[in-house]
Design brief:
Elements lengths: L8 H32 L14 H28 L2 H33 L7 H22 L3 H28 L20 H44 L1
Length: about 240
Amino acid sequence: MSIWEYANPKRFMQASGALLPWVTGAALICLVTGLVWGVFFTPDADKFGSTVKIIYLHVPAAMMAISAWMMMLVASLIWLIRRHHVSALSAKAAAPVGLTFTLIGLVTGAIWGQPMWGTWWAWDPRLTSFLILALFYLGYIALWEAVEDPDTAADLTSVLCIVGSVFAFLSRYAVLFWNQGLHQGASLSLDREEHVADVYSSPLYVCIAGFVLLFVTLVLLRTRTEIRARRVAALLARERLA
């Protein structure tokens, strides 16, 4: 069976309908388990106190904000190359979800940064590139709404997605490029000195899995809604022509 079979809207609706209950349940289990474990059953950090526990929201949200844009990039490239409408609609569906994760990352980062840095915001390389990524999300969503023809909108937003991928990449690796930034290194790293302690990393992995599954759930739901909306628009257009 070829993966391209799922580019057929009917086939996608069947497969996603069967998958959704399982993904939704797994997302709920992981999120509840990870957050309860991390918030209530891990100690305060020696250096950061109880504020360290915001990592269970901040880190997964920041990771998924960037990953969501990368998923949109892949879907946009598939649209530009193969012209599969499901891929374009899935990219459109992922944008508000990715924007929400980006805003969660920015807000929780500010809450975490204030006691650490003494300020809610600093023009740190990673923070700045992350803010620009949020603006690209807004521009992407606005462009879809501004262009009437769906195929033209898909073409233009795909190009915008390719350009915005530069800032998604910078958001991930800015700390490595500019060591003078305030933002600390990655919480999860192969470097044991930089890697968060195991007592915090175990529930963090569970939270990350929950955010990934939540993203998949929301994108599937929104893509199914976009497909239904496209079908309704096509039926209305046929009625007007009849």
